[in-house]
Specification:
With 415 residues, the protein is an alpha+beta fold. The chain has 15 helices and 10 strands.
């Protein structure tokens, strides 16, 4: 695109020490501004990507990819329905469950809880709870033993550990002459899990499905069936196919519906933050306009001499285009390098800052994820780099055109 003459002079102007130090200061400021804007964009988008990935993994570690429930909150013959779901491409696991609500008490402490009755050997096919046991094991849930596995924050709220006995109270009660009395049952705490999701760590209590059926008076019915897929992004398609295959009284939902709000919010935040931070790059890039305008004014005599020696207006324009683009290129390169360095090491940098200043950016009882994750995606880095270069090149057009229009006779009149 550029001949050696334009390239040589453009690079010469960039490297030469200027008599006007203010111009050099503005050039350096523009370069640093571009670098900081690009770095901020990479770090923020990488953190957003990390949050999206961690949130999805954390939620889907407890929540199923696809869930089947009866129209009245329960259905029978779950085994036959599970067999039908296995015929669907992409389904790699299924597990029945019984769901309900109750109140756990220990001594004078009590806490509301979400009861989930499971079959441990089936549950391992659809959730990661068994891989996040802090104490005990999910296999300790046996029919008739009335054992319970609690989330770690729920156990802390009650002040219990493995081996303690808690009382579970459910709304389903006995009708007596004195009125409806709630059902109470003593359970032995046989395990504690931590899935790093406060919603489940602080509220979920898992018991054997047979015990849950007795406690909630469901007989042989289950609340639903949970499915795991090879590709979680295929959940909407699989749910749609199952809807045409299974009886109409079975309600089918997938994780993109039940938790769509979370992921949609992150996506919107990511776009908004991209636009806001892009303004930093834009402001820094258009500082190049003022820099090059001042350079053009400072180099009027040099431009006039080059024109009298035979340089074409297009060549003069390319000289200053190279100079401005070089500032943008260096700023973008520095920003990409610094941004990638911070994004890749965010798991080390943030804890160090928290330790030094004694703060916690993400409180566990407030946010779903207490650690700041990061995932650098190549397409984000590429479009940030290209957009930054595009803005800087756009900013060089006006000063370059102004330099090309300088009249040699007017410029040399008072020299």
């Amino acid at each position: 695109m550029f001949k050696p003459f334009e390239l040589f002079v453009g690079l010469r102007y960039t490297k030469a020490k200027r008599k006007n130090h203010f111009i050099s200061f503005i050039s350096a400021t523009s370069m640093i501004g571009i670098a900081l804007g690009v770095a901020a964009l990479i770090v923020v988008l990488s953190v957003m990507n990390g949050f999206q990935k961690e949130l999805r993994a954390t939620i889907l570690g407890v929540v199923s990819h696809v869930q089947l429930m009866g129209s009245h909150g329960q259905f029978e013959n779950w085994e036959s329905i599970a067999e039908q779901t296995k015929k669907q491409d992409g389904v790699i696991g299924s597990a029945p469950f019984v769901s309900g609500e109750g109140l756990l008490t220990f001594g004078r402490r009590s806490h509301g809880t979400l009861i989930r009755g499971v079959l441990p050997h089936f549950e391992k096919n659809v959730s990661d709870v068994s891989d996040h046991m802090v104490e005990g094991s999910l296999d300790t849930l046996e029919a008739g033993q009335f054992n319970v596995v609690l989330g770690i924050d729920l156990a802390r709220s009650l002040g219990v550990g493995v081996g303690d006995r808690v009382v579970l109270i459910t709304p389903q009660g006995h009708v007596t002459p004195a009125g409806v009395m709630p059902r109470l049952r003593q359970f032995l705490v046989s395990g504690i899990f931590e899935v790093k999701n406060y919603e489940y760590d602080a509220a979920l209590a898992m018991i054997h499905m047979a015990d849950a059926q007795k406690l909630l008076m469901l007989g042989n019915s289950v609340s639903g069936l949970r499915l795991k897929l090879t590709d979680l992004f295929e959940a909407p398609r699989v749910a749609s196919n199952l809807a045409s295959l299974l009886p109409p009284d079975i309600f089918i939902s997938d994780w993109t519906r039940s938790h769509a709000t979370f992921f949609r919010a992150i996506q919107i935040e990511k776009r908004v933050m991209s636009i806001i931070l892009l303004l930093i790059v834009a402001v820094a890039a258009f500082n190049i306009v003022s820099t090059l305008v001042m350079v053009v004014t400072d180099k009027r005599t040099d431009i006039a001499i080059l024109r009298t020696l035979g340089a074409l207006p297009s060549q003069i324009m390319k000289i200053f285009f190279i100079q401005g683009s070089l500032i943008g290129f260096i700023g973008t390169l520095l920003g990409l390098s610094f941004g990638l360095l911070v994004a890749v090491n965010i798991d080390v940098i943030v804890p160090a800052i928290e330790s030094v200043f004694g703060v916690q950016f993400l409180a566990k009882d407030v946010y779903y994820i207490s650690d700041i994750p990061s995932e650098v995606q190549a397409n984000d880095v590429i479009w940030i780099g290209l957009l930054s270069l595009g803005l800087t090149m756009l900013a060089t057009i006006y000063p370059s055109l102004r330099a090309a229009k300088i009249n040699p006779s007017e410029a040399l009149r008072y020299e």
